[in-house]
Amino acid sequence: MNDLQTFKNFHDGLPGPAPEVAARARERLAAEAVAEAGRAGGVPAPRRVPRPGRPAGRGRVALRAGVVAGLAAAATAGVIVVGGDDGSPLLGTPPADAADLLRQAAVAAAGEHPRPGADQFVYVDRKDVDYSFSVSRRGMSQYEQDVRREVWFPADPGKAVARSTYGEKRLISGRGDLPGLPAGTVEYQRAGQCHMDVLHVPSRDIGNLPTDPDRLLDRVRQNAEALVRTEEPALGETPPGGEQIDRRIQRTVASELVSLAENPFGSARTRAAVFGALAKLPGTTLVPGLADPAGRHGVGASIRYQGPDGPEREELIFEPGTYRFLGWRSWGEMEQEDGRSREVMRGGTAMMAVKIVDSMPAIPPENEAPTYC
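^ CU044_5270 family protein, sequence as received from the core. Prediction below:
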């Protein structure tokens, strides 16, 4: 009797895992296969990773020698875990630290690379938390507002359209008025229509980014330094000193990498490089219990740095077990009415869905011009 027959006999005597467990195990195995093809220099064919609860496509998986016993042991727990020969972490195992978490996130992201056909669209559904402040005779007020943003990207992202549905405002501090759009307002925006862009249209250079984490981090740092050092101070503002410039560069690097992390258009290898670069930032720590702006609980990586006005941090949140990217939150120190500073959330995004669709909505004539542009 060969090893495969032994495994089959052992497996047939075990109780089957729950459907959602089996679906997630298939998803992890598929993601690792795509990532391994990338590591070997191949270019995996674009594919849609089956979501939990959706049967995966039929196919044959080649088992390496020595894997049979490991699969049999894992089957008793109802979970299949896979790992690479290069020491990459086992999917499904709790991350040991932030770098480990981000490596697992890179493997999970390897299977998420939507490509629309000629007459199709990438549909991105986000829940954004917008932070704002206002100054009036009653004083300064800080508040946040939930906004559902749906974006339809055709093959040419320059023709994308966003629909924003505004929710309730929440006062953070102060007693002043809360300006802005009232709850229930629906607005549309075309790519390139407004200076205040809400579409997050991917750069046309995203396909040219380095796929090595170290080279990518160097590129982002060089761009951040060039941007910060050439920035003109506002009227009446004192030019920043060396320490202030360094802090602004740190903030720009972290913000740019977080922006790339939530971008669904990078290749599998580019997204893996982004998470690898984030793992190399100083001040990155593992936070086991975090919730994204939609309230979904996950495991996170916190990136802390000194911003121009004090400590700041970015949080990346991932789904436990699958390490699918759920969203991010940004925090900073803000001075309150009593003169003391406290940490407040200054924005965040929950990625609710990314999928291929066959149509996009027409913009109503009365919504051609956004209120804030």
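The two ends are 71 Å apart (CA to CA).
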